[in-house]
Amino acid sequence: MPEQRSFTSRRGLLFGTAAVSAGALLTACTSNESNEAAAAENNRPAADDKPGKHVTIGFAGPQADHGWLNAINQNAKSRAKNFSDVTLETTEGSNDTAQQIGQIETLINKKVDVLVILPADGKALTQVGLRAMRAGIPVVNLDRIFNSSQAYRCWIGGDNYGMGLNAGTYIGEKLKGKKNAKVVELAGLDNLELTRQRTKGFDDALKNYPNIEKVARQAADFTVESGQAKMAQLLQAQSKIDAVWNHDDDQGVGALRAIEQAGRDEFLMVGGAGALSALQAIKQDKGVLKATVLYPPSMAASAIDLARALGQSKGIGGLSQYEIPASLTVYSAVVDKDNVDQYMSTGFK
After folding, report:
1. What are phi and psi of 75, to 5 degrees?
2. pLDDT tens-digit map of 159-168
3. Of 134, 199, 339, 347, which cross-links 279 as Cys (Cβ 3.0–4.6 Å)?
């Protein structure tokens, strides 16, 4: 199979991380003369950074009990501060379904102009999304998707299947000359569809490398403690490992502790999400962690851009359509030592 470099291409740089929030996604939503001319030619107003109609955005995000989830909240808040015509009404954030439904209902009763919702459980919160839409409040569904497309006006989120696919391809290319290569997978929460998609993408990528066998898999629940415990189990059970695919850089902190304690360094490890600690380790290149596949929390900043455009009845510059798209999938670029400097500023704590 020819070498695949989609994960480090210029396209990946444009659609991978922070570029999505203020650059690639809404490139022409800044005051760019050529894009304004294109908008005028198509009789379509394009959102830009100039103050316009005031928009109150209700933001119902997650409980910040994880590095990536905290970064989601911070990206949304920081982006909203860039606009003098935006007021952001935020909830406390909750991973409890009933509590989050109550928080969203409060925002609906306040008659916010637009809602941005990252549901604790997409299926369980579908009805409250429908309620908002029927009340005339457009919903930007962030990442974990509702069961019905009628429950949101626009969905923006990560490419979980692509994340696993790119991780598997990266590992496959690194091990393609090695006979009987063995890899293990440290997954996240198995009751989440996103975890299943990441595994499926990884497994599909490995089908292209018949010399590689996935010999074990453990779910580590996205926590440091479980990451350490589950990685220790994998190391104890497998005397020979050539690569590890770890779904999440937070649980990867624990996994790396287990690896260090076991004194194992014969394999390479690929992480997931793009935590600052992971990017720094990749740059130093002194351990087993050689790459991470991005799942950029800057998608929350993009969600604020989309909500503002919806509230102002504007489209996205650079597109011929009058309306904003119904869905946007963020690209999962692979970051290794060759391109880590270009992504270092996007790392989250």
Report:
1. -65, -40
2. 999 999 999 9
3. 347
